[in-house]
Write a structure and sequence with these properties.
The protein is α+β, with helices and mostly antiparallel strands. It contains 18 helices and 52 strands. Strands 45, 46, 47, 48, 49, 50, 51 and 52 form an eight-stranded mixed β-sheet that branches. The protein is globular.
Length: 968
Amino acid sequence: MKHIMITLLAGLLALPVHAKEKSYRLQMDLSGSWQLTLDAAALTDARQPREAMVTLPGTTDTNRQGNPCTDRSQTGHLTRLFSYVGKAWYRRTVVIPREWSGKRICLHMERTKPSTVFVDGRSQGSQGNICTPQVYDLTAALTPGSHEICILVDNSSGVPRQVYASSHAFTEDTQTNWNGIIGRFFLEAVNPVHFTRMTVKPDAAARKAQVLLRFEGTPGAKARLRVAVTDLAGRVMTSREFRKITLEPTSKPEHFFPLELSLGADSKLWSEFSPQRYVVKAEITGEDTLSATFGLVDFRAHDRHFYVNGNLTFLRGKHDACVFPQTAHAPMDVETWRRYLATCRRYGINHVRFHSWCPPDAAFTAADEMGVYLQPELPFWGDFNAADSTLMNFLLREGKQLLMAYGNHPSFVMMALGNELWGSVETMQQFVRVLRAFDSRKLYTLGSSYYLGFRGVSPEMDYFTTCRTAGEAWGQFHTHTRGSFGFCDALDGGIINHFRPSTSWNFEQACLRSSVPVISHETGQFQTYPDFDSEIPQYQGVLRPYNMEEFRRRLQAAGMGDQAADFHRASGAWSVSLYKADIEADLRTRHMAGFHLLDIQDYPGQGSAYVGILDANMQSKGLVTPEEWRQWCSPVVPLMEADSCVLATSRQAGQAGGSGWKAGFSIANYSGRPLQGKTLTWRLVLPGGQTAAEGSLPVPADSVGLFRVGTAAADLRGIRQPTRLTVEVAVGGTPYHNSYPLWVYPEAENKITDLKKGILITSHLTDEMGKKLENGASVLWLTSPTSVREDSVLNASLPVVQGLFQTDYWNYRMFKTICENNKKPVSPGTLGIFTHPEHPLFRGFPTEEHTNWQWFSIIKGSSPMILDVFPRSYRPIVQVIDNIERNHKLGLVFEFKVGRGRLLVCMSNLRRQLQYPESRAFYRSMLQYMHSADFRPSFSISFSELKATLSRQAASAEIGELRNISYD
């Protein structure tokens, strides 16, 4: 490989490094005004101007060129004010200086779409790489003097058609299929002998780096080569000088020069905790210089875990789909990426997975500085079709190019072939073998959740990013690696929605099926109702949130526009708790290696998936502070393990229901340091802040990774009223703490049978019951599945939806389509409850305004009624929040004054749930409310009017089809 003859080698020298690095490269900045010509065939109106002066770097969108938006009804994603798909010609005259004569001159475009470059009307070739800079050698064409450069950029062809349909490098769902040139944009002149590339392969254990220099030059030329490694402050770690080298004639223009550099025992390693970077500086005296930043990092997979420099590591990742609404393209500057990653870090994220796209160099640079582990992907999501040579060649070329362009960055530690791939597994394996041979510094996997996990782990995988580790029978959950799914993928939408709440479940059974580290794929996807008033004004760039404006208009049309903020706040608070549960299940799994959240950030496409705790602009929604979120998303997380979050107590020991609270405590410690000698403290806190019980446990000596600390117990017979407590747990002498809700329900002396006296309880609202209401009776209408299916009065099914405990998964419109096409039940589609905790109905059932874990049995056994036909001002006591597509007014608990009587309606089959403490408490609290003077419904209606109103079916919203490539 070495094509250089070394005539004198001067070993390791203590050479000084120039205070100011020399630059032999001459550059001409091409940013500024360019003449744009659009293709008439790509314009929707022949009267639109085809030519304009535009600013580059930029896009047709940022320059307000192309087809103006005429349709504001799009709800699938944000809307471009100006869209353009086709050929665009960018022209400009440049004057090449006389001193550039004899040098090699190249055009550099950091990021663009497939292009062809012309100089003075003559083609200089075409390029189609989309993940890395395009560089054109224009030496022959750009002689000293004036020349016209014309760059044809085509965002309608030049890459395989499948890439347009799915990749986040092109999709309209996020960064859009823009046309333009972004990032660094310049002409560069270099001397005949010049560097072309530098590859740095660190050896962290030995504190060394293998460096491979590539350069071009005239055969026979002689040069003096100096190489040094410095830290960022300029301190020299090591240097070498090769006083005289001769370029031997070769069949290829590129020459290779490998060398090993030892940084010394005092050099520091790179990781999330200490992102130490070094710079390799190479100089061919009098000819050229080249620098590369790197870090001493050893990122490897072993025994189902990741290790960084020998330290056990857990990847707390987020999914990134290139959501940058102000520009509709990836930021190309380091500062914007610093802000983005700083936000991630504030929320405990140490890893970013780039879904079917690769970010620019600036992202890697910022991640290097901040200690964030990155996984780019090939720009593909779909069928890995071995017979499609055009697609295969394109993807393999993109993979090699992005490894060459960004491979030196210490943050670039892993790589996937794309998202949710299917097709030829053998070809995927071959790709990994080729890429690993090309660059052995990275870990590789076939694809993020390839075959949706059903194929299990495959040879050539260094790690397995997946939602399941094998196929399973319908209704089984033992292969799952996350707590929530669409109803098309798992019975009842997965573990969280299906099983009674606890803090003891995990994914160990699934992870043990894999021989390599498992990363939970796209964990979460819990919807939040959008915050219209706060978010809509943020959009001042090239995209507009017409989808959000349409959703707001629909809510207003449904008579609930005044509740938008309530719905946002309540659904958001519940989604935060759901994310906490899913993340902690990962942390409780001994052989889980990480997760990729979908997401802490909203996804504004695919039907508009508002699943983030941050909005699409990475701004807080006001749902949770970074400090609160880091309780369960940090290098160290104390964990409570309990089989239930509700407890029934009796006043006397030995009576049914018991009196004691018991829990186990563990710590997930991935900080790189043991916690030996620390103490774990726990405390049960009453609503007023008083301590009900407390204790401490010593942290064991083996205190790295997930480990058990011990158990705790407390006698809670002193609590005489239904109470929500908080279990606080902390690691003493550290900032790490966590908290859990606990509901205690003492078995009351006044039994439910006693409270029923004086109240008529029915599952069917009969005419006879109506007469009693009219004559002054108090009636509790407790529905059942039978009465919901066919009510006695209506002789028809009641207008209801089914009960959904968690907030709806991802996006109702998309998964409704997928479920129907796959003959699976459609999710109920709701987003939790909204209520008023101070309402007297809750005196015996403490609650927040949103769903929490004590509502599980009540909501799961419910069928919320559609109340759209009632007056717009009518509000249920417990309202169920509907999704943005349907906007039903839904009631779980509501009341009417009927004649002289009073009617309380509960759309939950409570009588089948009385084995659960929370259901008994809720039933008892409702009956107590009905006996109280507070039971005075403000909305009056006659029984005949009530029957007539219930008989009128509300108009159903027409929800358009929205497909997903992984399910077609």
